[in-house]
């Protein structure tokens, strides 16, 4: 049984095998974006967000300055007919949240930051979670994730005309810029309203879908201040103030769902919906206890807006997916850098209680 | 009847993988390759496809884990065709080791991924709204280690699959020793001959070997 002679086509076969392997590597590289420098990747978005000196290791890549809280979401039941999500069925559900400032620098002075944020994680007894990350602006600056990256590049550019040409190409931007330039600064997180801006779909028990946006509206009055007066309150005023305030008594926000009507722009968070849209008060958030971030329960939570319970889902708004991809990258990086942001007690990255 | 009563260790090893083994192999080949492409693609994009790709990736990962365990059980019960006796020893060792690594990755990658999502404190959401329980408590440092392992092993897995593919084609196109045919998805005229040749060749070579 002599072995079959090596066929004449051996060289051809070897070339074929090499070609199949090389083709596979090329397809894999293309899929991974290694051959597409133009693709908008999570890394690019994070690089665009980073301060000029580079990202601050151990911290969120944006909304880096924040403080944790725990509390309760009490669903009124008023939205139960719109969504089968347990979180809308009348009842009390535990919340872990985070008040924050829209800056990549955890040391930034409060008065230097225009945008405030609220991250929420509501857990229901069916083990489902609803995570949301909202801001106080009434509209988002731009219509698409690509445009957001363009804005980051223009804002970070040394070219003095970069912002001018960005604005020329993005007619939606002035609405946000107008708010940023003229809106007063509420003196406290407690008097600040937070908006989803992104649109989501609610699904009821019969499978009917309704596009919504939502806001958490404060019970406390806004106490509006000028930028200069607010900056005079101190660099860490907001965290200090909310800590004192909540120690004296819980603070409340009402969850207001705004229901879209046909034709309302669900895919574009830079465009507000008409004021007369039907609104539903779905429940009340009560902030019961403030905890500093280093040992707080919110530190290692990624407030990913695509983590939704059954009954709430993504709409055609492209932002939640883009945010999810970028947040995941930020979370992977900052947990890898946990030594740069150790917990105060223990500092072992031990499981949170 | 006598076959089933015969001592397994003395039973002749099958010339080809069984139909079930071949089906599992090719089903998993498609699933694992899709998995690697989805994985490398989804982490490179911020497009709306990111979310469904991630959910599909998790779901497919669990399916691969289940199939890999099933496949190992079938392998333990049915056995494998012998490698050609004249296969050089380094190639035999490479074949054995690469298969250990392939099975290890098919089982470990889904578990590392599941553990990674668990340790991030994120719900393990699959297609159809199915939610699996966490297999680790939330822990940032653990998450970071698992994430790095998952990413690095994915590239190793892809490299190993290319090696496996190249070796399979080498057997099929150059050595023509029946190894490729033993796992080929369908029988062809040539393939029907090949295992027979391989089997008889194996037997005679085995006696050569022991001589």
What is this structure's SSE topology?
The complex is a heterodimer of chains A (353) and B (211).
Chain A (H helix, E strand, L loop, with lengths): L9 H22 L10 H8 L15 E11 L15 E11 L14 E8 L5 E7 L9 H11 L6 H8 L3 H10 L2 E2 L7 E2 L4 E4 L5 E10 L5 E2 L1 H5 L5 H12 L2 E9 L19 E13 L20 E3 L4 H18 L17
Antiparallel strand pairs in A: 1-2, 1-11, 2-3, 3-4, 5-9, 6-8, 7-8, 7-12, 8-10, 10-11
Helix pairs in contact in A: 2-8, 3-4
Chain B lengths: L1 H4 L13 H24 L7 H29 L10 H31 L4 E2 L5 E2 L7 H36 L3 H5 L5 H22 L1
Antiparallel strand pairs in B: 1-2
Helix pairs in contact in B: 2-3, 2-5, 3-4, 4-5
Looking at the overall shape, the CATH architecture of chain B is Up-down Bundle
What is the third-level CATH name, the topology of chain B?
Fumarate Reductase Cytochrome B subunit
Distance between the termini of chain A: 70 Å
- Main pleated sheet of chain A: 10 strands, antiparallel
Overall morphology of chain A: globular
CATH superfamily of the domain at 62-145 and 175-326 in chain A: Catalase core domain
Task: Give the number of DSSP strands of chain B.
Answer: 2
Mean pLDDT of chain A: 95
Helicity range of chain B: over 70%
Radius of gyration of chain B: 20 Å
Most extensive chain-chain interface: A-B, 59 and 47 residues
Q: What average pLDDT do the residues of chain B reach?
A: 87
H/I helix tally of chain B: 7
SSE class of chain B: mainly alpha
How many beta strands in the DSSP annotation of chain A?
A: 12
Describe what this molecule looks like in 3D:
Chain A: Its cofactor is heme. Chain A: Keywords: Heme, Iron, Metal-binding, Oxidoreductase, Peroxidase. Chain A: Its EC number is 1.11.1.-. Chain A: Has an organic peroxide-dependent peroxidase activity. The complex is a heterodimer of chains A (353) and B (211). By secondary structure, chain A is of the alpha+beta class. Chain A has 8 helices and 12 strands. Chain A has a domain at 62-145 and 175-326: Beta Barrel (Catalase HpII,  Chain A, domain 1). In chain A, 27% of the residues lie in helices and 23% in strands. In chain A, the strands form 2 sheets. In chain A, strands 1, 2, 3, 4, 6, 7, 8, 10, 11 and 12 form a 10-stranded antiparallel beta sheet that branches. Chain A has a two-stranded antiparallel ribbon with strand order 5-9. In chain A, helix 2 packs across helix 8 and helix 3 (145-155) runs antiparallel to helix 4 (162-169). The model of chain A is unreliable at 346-353 (pLDDT under 50). Chain B has a two-stranded antiparallel sheet. Chain B has helices spanning 2-5, 19-42, 50-78, 89-119, 140-175, 179-183, 189-210, and strands at residues 124-125, 131-132. In chain B, a hairpin with a 5-residue loop joins strand 1 (124-125) and strand 2. Classes of the chains: A alpha+beta (353), B mainly alpha (211). The interface between A and B is large, with 59 and 47 residues.
